[in-house]
Amino acid sequence: MKTQRRQLGTREPLQPSTGARSDHPRRAEDGVASARAFLVLVAIFMCAQPAAWAGDGGDRDGIMMPVAAVAVAVSGELSCDMPVAPFIHPSMDPAVRAKLEVGLELAAERVRDIETCGDLFTRLGADGLDILNNSLYMQVNNHLREVRVCGRNGAARSLGAKNLAYTKVGAASTWICRHFSRVSAETAAVALIHEALHHAGLTEWPSDRLAMTSEQITKMVRNACEF
Fold this sequence. Notes:
Layout: H1 25-48, H2 67-75, E1 87-88, H3 94-113, H4 115-122, H5 128-133, E2 136-139, H6 143-150, E3 165-167, E4 173-176, H7 185-199, H8 214-224
Parallel strand pairs: 1-2, 2-4
Antiparallel strand pairs: 3-4
């Protein structure tokens, strides 16, 4: 009787996985260079427009990276004159947008130049300029939301005080109220730093019973940022 023997390991070895990726290294490098050049050109074009901002943020958080942020990721530097260049919804009223831009510039300068102001974010484990730059600004544009978001501030001492903006804790989206356009540049900057602190994780009474009220946070921002 003949004994049949089976041989193990006789299959041909698989082709190395790196072979398919290394056939055209030059083509891959050209593709990366082209992509970088395209993004930089788009960023430069957007910065040249007086009120041009990328994308449509809608009603969700974090669905669009601002073009300026893409430029930073590609080239390592901002190509605009503004200290920060966050996303601003293209449908925002021009008067509200103008005051928002002025307020953002002043807010960014205080966070950058005044140590106690920047420390408000550092204590939350965040960078103030990064938070401002990665915020998404939308205008409150319907009656029901206007009543709910922009009505009288219950934590304020003045009965006529109204909310200027609203941000959920930890969220990038900040909703700007219509009467934001009527406040001073300093008041706008204080409000934007206030909302950026919520973006960075700062809670507020009454949702957090141990937290500061809205008015107390605003007072803290005014003192720390020398307004």
